[in-house]
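One example given next:
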Amino acid sequence: MRIDRGLHLVMSGGGGFDLTDAFDCNVFLVGSGEEWLMFDAGAGRDPAGAAAVLAEDGIDPMSIRHLFLTHGHADHSGGAAHWRDLAGLTVHAGQQTAAMVASGDENGISLGRARAAGVYPMDYVYSPCPVDHVVVPGESIRIGDVSVQPIATPGHSHDHISYVVTTPTRRLLLGGDALFHGGKVAIQDIEDCDVSAYCRTIRTLATIEFDALLPGHLTFSLKDGHRHAKAALTYVEALHIPPSII
């Protein structure tokens, strides 16, 4: 689904736009010249669905050269192995995410708890994926005319990283599950969710300027995206927890 020039939504499940498998997160492509950068990879249950969206948008899967993961939860990283095998792309992730995704650490990504709670079907199979590049928060990764800056944003999960992406025309926050439209967050009763860390993350995001908020679920915002961080901050400054989408 083309959002704007050089920006597409190619996967989105039941917590979004129902483009692809119900268990997929929002997966965005950002263009850099003739190449595409993918942010998160969906759950990996229905690659044909994503292929159909790409075909409709006129995008060759082989032109997707980089995949950036925000965290290890299966709806965001379960499809990484498929895309790496298909396109030979470079997989980028934070150190903790990389260790869990590469080893298929289902306890680390809370997949067992999620299956038991009915979030995923019991027959869901997670595919481990090697990570080619471990990103360091604060570094700037230049790919063509696009720069990608990883930002440590723990809270929803201990390994969570968001990406500030600067293109010639936009400054985007690829926020994964760190921040949602309306200043909402995603809090779960799992071992790697930390409310205090989440509040610190909101304070961090409120200091960063970005035009568009592209979250891992629900709707996105293309204009004045920073207002959603400010909305979350109003709760945190009052010693409250922002509303959760879960």
